Amino acid sequence: MRRLKVAVKQHPDVRRTKRWQVGYRDVDRKRRAEFYLTRAEADVRAEALRIEIRNFGLTALSMPDSVRLESQQALEILRPYGKGLIDAARHYAGHLERNAKSRNIEDVIEDFLLTKQAAKVSARHISDMRSRLGLFTRSFRGRSARNRPSVEMKTPEPDAFG
Prior knowledge:
Number of domains: 3
Structural class: mainly alpha
Mean pLDDT: 82
């Protein structure tokens, strides 16, 4: 791979306020240019780009600043737990996989009732369960058996006597 050049040049248009240009090519080999008021500012930015490329390669240039900021914030959230972004991504990917495999309430209850029938539970007991679970099914129709309630449930405050 060719060595990446970061160049500092003075723009020929004297009417420009920001005449000092830092030019380089990004990870897709597209030309990029940043403009600065003084040569010193341009030199500082050029050196920072060179160090970044040396330390992290060209991919560091393609990462938007918003992603870098989010990464820093995410690391701060994870720091007390001794975990990094890869750990968080793996955990979240597993969570999404489990949710994708989740079944709806109606199917889970129907399987439960079929299991009870296969276990030779009395017809009266199955009828009673079907009736009671029917109310539950109607209340949660279409919901995934894995989903949590959409409203945060509060635990009751203990009263003065207990």
